Amino acid sequence: MWDVRNLQRGRGAVFSPGNRFEVLHTEVDSDCEVDEEQSSLRTIFLDDDAQSIITYNKSPDIGFDAGINVYRGCEHGCAYCYARPTHEYLGFNSGLDFESRIMVKRRAPELLRKELMSQRWKPQFLAMSGNTDCYQPIEKKLRLTRGCLEVLAEFRNPVGIITKNYLVTRDIDVLTELAKHQCVVVYLSINSLDADLAAKLEPRAASPKHRFEAMRKLSDAGIPVGILTAPIIPGLNDHELPVLLKTAAENGAKTAGHTVVRLPYAVKDLFSAWLDALYPDRKAKVLDRIRSMRDGKLNNSDFGSRMRGTGFFADQIHQLFEVSVCRAGLNEREVHVSADAFRRPGENVQMKLL
What we know:
Number of strands: 10
Radius of gyration: 21 Å
Oligomer: single chain
Distance between the termini: 69 Å
């Protein structure tokens, strides 16, 4: 059993699992006591020499085809994060490495401009934070997300943002410019109003209170905003759906979405250890309900069901979401995001029309 003492301050992973692509790895005995003086883990930022910034996917259950991730790894440290295993492709692990070894694409705005200028680029919706949060703490200093948004505003290319950070309000000026041309929608990811639970689940993200404040500020500025209640974890936060959606509507949200928790690869062991350390009384109930939604396993990556799950508890969550959305007056009209206003700087408008 994992002890709460194994958790380092501000970190979501209780331990660091082995990299599934590596033969050798080090394990720490879960029963050993942690030396508090040595338990502080410093975040290291490493340059990512990416040669392109737009990535593509062909997944039938993801609502976008192209996206931008200026950071790989995420200091928010969410205990359930499905993106953790992507760090293993870089030679790191899904646990503490994912939270403390952050790859930074410093040339992101420059690369984005180059790709949008190319005649090969077909104007289309771009997602930011499809993998890791574009407003994680280091963005306050590096301003790479802001740089990319400035490029997108110049080209009037549509973008959707998902974030857990109040820092998004810093860029209201750029987001307002995008909104003038129906080129932006921002989702605040909030899955609990319980500040204590949120601090444990998402240790370096903004508090739920501050995320709702960000939602209100964006809405008041005329920027289309919504809530993403993700992930919903049965037996832990599913009961909060009605109040979450009601609060979102009260703070200016017009649209809402949700997903249920999924635990690919090492994430299932990390999340199980997190429950052991912080919610041992709920562990069996939560994991049993997740298995009931995943054909008896803690994860099922099949397209079509991986975001929704199957079975009684999955259906119950979806029905509760739909009823709560209706009561809150959300999703009554589609938030329209368009590439119609796209332009390349210096491009002759008349020639474009011809």
